[in-house]
Amino acid sequence: xxxxxxxxxxxxxxxxxxxxxxxxxxxxxxxxxxxxxxxxxxxxxxxxxxxxxxxxxxxxxxxxxxxxxxxxxxxxxxxxxxxxxxxxxxxxxxxxxxxxxxxxxxxxxxxxxxxxxxxxxxxxxxxxxxxxxxxxxxxxxxxxxxxxxxxxxxxxxxxxxxxxxxxxxxxxxxxxxxxxxxxxxxxxxxxxxxxxxxxxxxxxxxxxxxxxxxxxxxxxxxxxxxxxxxxxxxx
Length: 235
Ligand code: SF4
Prior knowledge:
Its main location: cytoplasm. It contains eight helices and six strands, in the order ααβαβαβαααβββα. The chain is an alpha/beta fold. It has one domain: Rossmann fold (3-Layer(aba) Sandwich). About 40% of the residues are buried. Iron/sulfur cluster (SF4) binds near residues 74, 119 and 205.
């Protein structure tokens, strides 16, 4: 975390909109180079540790970068294994961020298994609020969003202004396809969540993630019982 003060949000907005236009066709490395150069220690990368593609890419340009992980208390062991591998093998500092309430306290206040009744509320407490709090320490954050993942992500810009948090949001691999990701994993021996070898197409918290059938949309296994595609941190 950087001790320096946050930058003026209006300045950040103008910077983001300009860089978004200029870097639209730039390589992911160039986009990260810009963000790391512009924001220094006030730039971080977020990861859900489904894989370590973005963390690897960012750390190759900005070694020492902080990686924010939303530790909901409801992750698969396989996800925590990827976190541990990243911690041991890549030049990054992993910062695991926890919600204000433990799962037990949430159960006590809102009833057991809130995710089965109100996943939006659960995601808000366990993901959105903790991320909002963590991002107070940065001016810019990178996420692994890709346009080909879903309709809601089709308009992702490589650099944008996150108006809710008043931060610059960077999506270096927005234009990548799944094939690009697979090629990067193969070329760089990237740690990948073991669950992908067991029928999962996308990995989140265990109560809200199921396997997908061959040919099914990879994200269909997330919140499958609800009309919900996103946890809320990217809305
Ligand atoms: Fe809760 Fe499910 Fe959201 Fe995890 S993904 S925070 S368990 S609703």
